[in-house]
Design goal:
The complex is a heterodimer. Chain A is of the alpha/beta class. Chain A is about 50% helix and about 15% strand. Helices cover about 50% and strands about 15% of the residues of chain B. Classes of the chains: A alpha/beta, B alpha/beta. Bound molecules: guanosine-5'-triphosphate (2 copies) and magnesium ion (2 copies).
C-alpha cells in the first residue's frame, strides 16, 4: 500500500478506497474518516504516517468490544452456532472442539442440521477425527428433538462444552427463523447451570448483506458473538466494522482455513494490521 | 430506493433554475452510493457511473421535465446492457458426452448446483451423470450421492482419492451407460491456492469440458472481482452461476464479475431444493441491484 506523503483530499480518497475495497461499506467508512479528520485537527499533525496510525487506533477501538467469557472455569457451556448457508458453521464447530480440547475441556457435538444432504455425516466424520461424541438423529428428524436430546445428554454426562450445529438458513426465510427460535427455546429451557453463547458465523467474503444477517439473527435469538471465516482468502472481512458500529457484537474467533486447527482467537490489533496490508 | 432518491435530488436542484453538469454529478453520486451498497466493486462503480454521466449530461436530461426519471432510465439501460442482453444457454459439445466443470470458492453452492442442473437437464430430455471429484471435504461425495439418489441421477465417485482420475473415469462411465452429459463437482478452493488451482487445470485438461462454470455466492462483496479474475485467468471461465439469490442480497457481485471478465451469467440459484434454479434474466437482476 503506497500512500501520498502529504495530507490532502487525495490522501483521504486513498484511505476511503482501502476501506470500501475491504467491505467496510460507505456509511461506516464515512463515519471513520469523519472521526479521523477530527483527530487530525486535534493533534495538529501533518504526517500521513501518523494519520494512518490514528485510523488504525480508531478502528481497533471500535473492534475492542468486551466479549462473553468463552472459557468459564467450572461453569459448563453451550454454544449455539447459526448463520446462512455455506458460511462455515459445521467446520467451525470442528475447530471449536479442537480448541476446547486443547484447554482440557470435554466436548459434545450435536448434529442439528437434519435437512441438508450428508450434513450429519459431515459432522460425524469430524467427531470421529477429533475423538468427541456426537448426538444425532436421522436425516429429516425434528431439529427441536435433536436439540433436546443434545442438551439433556450434555447435562447428564456433565460435559464442559456442548456445541449445537444448525442448518444453514437464509435470514429472510420466516419459517426457518421460527424453527431456529424453537431450537433456541428448547436449549434455554434445559440449560440448568450451563451458560449459553449464541454464535453467528459470517463469511469474510460477504458484503453488505452481512448487516442484514446480523440484524435478523439477533432479533430472532440474540447474538453474543461472531466467528468470521475464510480470512485465509483475499477478502478482508471489513463488514465486521460496520457490524461493530451498528450492533456491537464482539468477534470471538477467526477461521483461517479448512482444518480443525485453523482457528484464531480474535485480536483487534492483528485484524486492523491485516486490513491495511 | 434509488428511483425516489434521484427524483428527490432533481426536485431539489430544479428549484435553483436550469440544470447543469454539476447537478447531474450530484444525482450520479446517489447512483454511486446505491451501487456500492449493492456490493458492486468500487472500481466498476466508478467506470459505470462515468459511462452513465456521458449520456446523462446530454440535452435530453438537462432539458427534461423529469430528469430523475431520465437518469434512472439511462442507468437501467446501461445495467441491462452490461448484464448481457439476453439469457445465454449452456453449450452442447458435438462429442458425447458433453462435460460441464463446476468450480468456485468454499461454500458457494457447487454441489447443490450440480444436483439442480442435473435435474434441470434431465427435464430437458438429457441423460446426466454426476461426478464427485471433491475428495477433501468430509462427506462431499456422500452429499452428491444422496442428491443423485433422491433425484434418480447416477453419481460416479471412483476411488474417492484422485480428482483428475475421477473426472476422466466418470466420462468413460457416462459413455458406457450412454449418458450424454457429465457434470463434475469439484472441491471448494481459494483462487490463491496454487496447488489446488493447478489441480483444477489438470482436471480441465483431462475432462476437456464444453463449459467451465464459476459458482459464486450472490452475497459476495468487493472480493468478487479478484476471485473471478483469478479463476478466469487460470482456467478460462465460460459462464457464471450466481447462487442464494432467494436472499435479500442485492447481488452487485454479478455486475462486477460481468464487467471485469465478460463472462455470461447462465443460471441463478434461488433455493436449497433441486427446483431452486432458474435461467438468468438480465433485466431482473439489474432492477434488484438498483434496489
Ligand atoms: N478456506 C476456508 N474455508 C473454510 C473456512 N471455514 C469453512 N470453510 C469451508 O467452507 C465450506 C463450507 O463449510 P461448512 O462448514 O460446510 O459450512 P456450513 O455453514 O456448515 O454450511 P451449511 O451447513 O451447508 O449451511 C467447506 O468447504 C469448508 O471447508 C475457512 O476459515 N477458510
Ligand atoms: N438458500 C439457498 N441455499 C443454497 C443455494 N445454493 C446452495 N445453497 C446452500 O448453500 C450451502 C452450501 O452449498 P454446497 O452445495 O454444499 O456448497 P459447495 O460450493 O459445494 O461447498 P464446498 O464443496 O464446501 O466448497 C448448502 O446449505 C446449500 O443448501 C441457493 O440457491 N439458495
Ligand atoms: Mg453445516
Ligand atoms: Mg461441495
Amino acid at each position: 500500500v503506497v500512500f501520498h506523503k502529504k495530507i490532502s483530499p487525495e490522501f483521504y480518497d486513498e484511505l476511503e478506497e482501502i476501506l470500501i475495497a475491504s467491505d467496510v461499506g460507505y456509511k461506516t467508512t464515512s463515519l471513520l474518516l469523519d472521526k479521523l479528520k477530527e483527530r487530525v485537527k486535534e493533534e495538529k499533525t501533518d504526517e500521513t504516517n501518523e494519520v494512518k496510525e490514528y485510523l488504525r487506533e480508531i478502528i481497533e477501538e471500535i473492534l475492542s468490544i468486551p466479549s462473553p467469557d468463552i472459557i468459564h472455569e467450572g461453569i459448563p457451556m453451550a454454544l449455539l452456532v447459526v448463520g446462512v448457508n455455506g458460511v462455515g458453521k459445521t467446520t467451525s464447530i470442528a475447530k471449536l472442539a479442537e480448541y476446547y480440547r486443547s484447554k482440557d475441556k470435554s466436548c459434545l457435538l450435536v448434529a442439528g442440521d437434519t435437512f441438508r444432504a450428508a450434513a450429519i455425516e459431515q459432522l460425524s466424520v469430524w467427531s470421529k477425527r477429533l475423538g468427541v461424541d456426537l448426538i444425532h438423529h436421522q436425516e429429516g428428524a425434528d431439529p427441536g428433538a435433536v436439540a433436546f436430546d443434545g442438551i439433556t445428554a450434555a447435562n447428564a454426562r456433565q460435559v464442559d462444552v456442548v456445541m449445537f450445529d444448525t442448518a444453514g438458513r437464509l435470514h429472510t426465510k420466516v419459517n426457518l427463523m421460527s424453527e431456529l427460535k424453537k431450537v433456541h427455546r428448547v436449549i434455554t429451557q434445559n440449560l440448568g447451570e450451563r451458560k449459553l453463547v449464541n454464535i453467528l458465523v459470517l463469511d469474510a467474503t460477504t458484503g453488505q448483506n452481512a448487516l442484514s444477517q446480523a440484524r435478523t439473527f439477533d432479533e430472532a435469538i440474540g447474538i453474543d458473538g461472531i466467528i468470521l471465516t475464510k480470512l485465509d482468502g483475499t477478502a478482508k472481512g471489513g463488514i465486521v466494522l460496520a457490524i461493530a458500529v451498528e450492533f456491537g457484537f464482539p468477534i470471538l474467533w477467526l477461521g483461517v482455513g479448512e482444518n480443525s486447527e485453523d482457528l484464531r482467537l480474535f485480536d483487534p490489533g492483528e485484524f486492523v494490521k491485516a486490513l491495511f496490508d | 430506493n434509488l428511483s425516489e432518491k434521484l427524483q428527490e435530488t432533481f426536485r431539489r436542484l430544479r428549484g435553483k433554475g436550469k440544470l447543469g453538469e454539476k447537478d447531474v454529478d450530484e444525482a450520479l453520486r446517489q447512483v454511486k452510493l446505491a451501487l456500492l451498497e449493492a456490493d458492486v466493486n468500487f472500481r466498476v462503480v466508478r467506470s459505470f457511473v462515468n459511462r452513465v454521466k456521458e449520456r446523462a449530461i446530454g440535452h435530453e436530461v438537462l432539458n427534461s421535465l423529469t430528469p430523475g426519471q431520465m437518469v434512472i432510465k439511462i442507468v437501467h439501460e446501461e445495467l441491462t446492457k452490461l448484464m448481457g442482453e439476453k439469457a445465454e444457454k449452456l453449450v452442447i459439445s458435438d462429442r458425447t458426452p458433453t462435460v460441464y466443470l463446476f468450480a468456485g470458492l468454499q461454500g458457494a453452492g457447487k454441489t447443490t448446483t450440480v444436483g439442480k442442473l442435473g435435474v434441470f437437464l434431465r427435464k430437458q430430455g438429457r441423460r446426466p451423470l454426476l461426478a464427485a471429484a471433491d475428495v477433501y471435504r468430509p462427506a462431499a461425495a456422500k452429499q452428491l450421492q444422496i442428491l443423485g439418489e433422491q433425484n434418480d441421477l447416477p453419481v460416479y465417485v471412483g476411488d474417492g482419492k484422485n480428482p483428475v482420475l475421477i473426472a476422466s473415469e466418470a466420462i468413460e462411465q457416462a459413455r458406457q451407460l450412454q449418458r450424454d452429459v457429465v457434470l463434475i463437482d469439484t472441491a471448494g478452493r481459494l483462487h490463491i491456492n496454487e496447488e489446488l488451482m493447478g489441480e483444477l487445470q489438470k482436471i480441465k485438461k483431462a475432462a476437456d469440458p464444453a463449459e467451465i462454470l464459476l459458482v459464486v455466492d450472490a452475497m459476495t462483496g468487493q472480493d468478487a472481482v479478484t476471485v473471478a479474475q483469478s479463476f478466469n485467468e487460470k482456467l478460462g471461465i465460460t459462464g457464471l452461476i450466481l447462487t442464494k439469490l432467494d436472499s435479500d442480497t442485492r447481488g452487485g457481485a454479478a455486475l462486477s464479475i460481468r464487467e471485469v471478465t465478460g463472462c455470461p451469467i447462465k443460471f441463478i440459484g434461488t433455493g436449497e431444493k433441486m427446483d431452486g434454479i432458474e435461467v438468468f434474466h438480465p433485466e431482473r437482476l439489474a432492477s434488484r441491484i438498483l434496489g
